[in-house]
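SAMPLE LOG
Freezer: B-3
Tube label: C17
Construct: single chain, 252 aa
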Amino acid sequence: MSEFILPVFFFAIAFFYSSVGFGGGSSYLAILSVVLTEFYEIRTVALVFNLVVVTISTVVYIKQKVVNWKNFWPFLIISIPMAFIGTQLKLSEKGFFLFLGISLLLSAIFMMLQEAMQRKSENRSFSWQKRSGLGASVGFLSGITGIGGGIFLSPLLNLLGWANPKIVASLASIFILFNSAAGLVGLVIADSFQFNKKFALPLLFAVIGGGSLGSYLSNNRFNIHLIRVLTAILVAYVGLRLILLYGFGVKV
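STRUCTURE (predicted):
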């Protein structure tokens, strides 16, 4: 893949994902698996980019006073150690990408169901135990897959009618931020942190640009439903591609 085309792809991914409160880790993983050979370098770079993009989104949400720490902390408190534990599991490269592909395909289905149903926020009151349980489960999944987990948590909460989409998106950003950080710490402790600055820095600037633009537009009445559908299609493609490639040896 051309060194000039690659930053464009990463800019676009950061733009689409940040528009709905995600970091883009799943698609970074998919593209990096094509251009890099070192498994742990792929995971490290994807997590770093994920962390950078959601940091930008989180700052925007905090400035707009959307973040409610009182409601958010139960999702985070157990998810962070669970994400760390998830990174310690030693999956084979094939097993990792198959698990990631299946998880992403299910997430995309939830996102499309959310849009098809156009479910209105019901502001359901979840007990702190329920929020902690959901956070712990998704946190562990995020540690295994090497992404922040918001892409799993957000569509689930929207389908359950927990809160309005903007609050859910802000929670997703913060959830990804904390769990990506926990994942990186886990990689460092497991001596699996690999970051090639010469390769990664140009792409890092691209995701900063895309993440900044996406976060800005998502908070300025951009067509968020269209972006969410396009993001779901992208996630579904990434998941299906990983399943076909690592499960059946079929390249698409």
